[in-house]
Amino acid sequence: MKGIVLEVWFKEKKLEPGEDGYLGEFSKGNFQLKYILPEKDSKIVVFTVDGKKNILPMKATIKTVPISQDGNGVFTTQYTNNNIRLAVFGQKGRFEIWEIAIVSQGGVFFLTEQRTYESQWFRGQNGEYVCPDFEKWPQLIELLKPIMEKEELPPVAEYSPPLPKTNGLLKGQGQVVWYNLVMQMGCIRLDDKGTVARVHWKSLPPNMNGGPRKLEAGQLVSYRKLLPVPQTTRATSFSMEVREVTPL
After folding, report:
1. 54 pLDDT more than 60
2. Strands 122-123, 129-130: parallel, antiparallel or unpaired by DSSP?
3. C-beta of residue 85 within 8 angstroms of C-beta of residue 69
4. What is the count of structural domains for the chain?
5. Do 47 and 55 form a contact (C-beta atoms < 8 A)?
6. So what's the pLDDT on residue 162?
7. Is 163 domain-assigned?
C-alpha cells in the first residue's frame, strides 16, 4: 500500500500474515502493529480515532493491540484500540484514508487493510483550504490542513457531492452502503426511501477463501431476518439489524 511496510509481532515473534491477512489463533497477550513509511515522504499522516471521533496523532511507529476475552470467553481485539489510520495524499488535494487493524472473528485473528474514504481538498472563495466531505469532522480538517499549504488546489466550485447509488430492491434484499472491517459491521439500505439497518460479521456466511467475513460498498445482499438491535454497552444510531445475510 503506497510503499508502506507493515509488520505484526506477538510476544517478540514476527508473524507472517497468510492470504487475506490470516494470523492464526492466539490467547491473552499483546500484538505489536508496526508501520514503516517511505523515506522522506511528508504526505502521509498516521493517526488513531477514539469512540467519540477524537483524533489522536501517532508519534510512535508501533501500535500495541491487546487481546481480551468477550462475554463468551472468546479471544478478540476491541474497537477502537485495534487499528491505525493513514491519510495518504496524491495530486491536487486528493487523498485516501486507510484503516489498518488486527481483528478477530470467532477467535481467529486477521490483519486487515481497508480504504475507507476517498476525498479531495479545494480552495475556498477567500483562499482558505476546504474539504466539503469532512466539514462535520473539524478535527480531521485541522489534522490534515498543514499538508495543503504547498498544494495547488482546484476551486471549491468544482466540488460535486457523491451521489447515492440506487437500485430497485425486492423484499428481503438490501444494498451495502458501507462496511467497516475495523468495526466488523456495516450499513445496509433496505429500500429506495433510504431505510437502513446494521449488519454484523456474525450474520455473514463464511469466507470461502479463508479470510474474514466482509461485504463491499454497493454490493447487493439478501437477508432472512430484520430484528431490533439488541441492547449493548456500545451506543449505536441503528434501531434495526439484518441477519442471515447472503451476498447476491
Report:
1. yes
2. antiparallel
3. no
4. 2
5. yes
6. 77
7. no
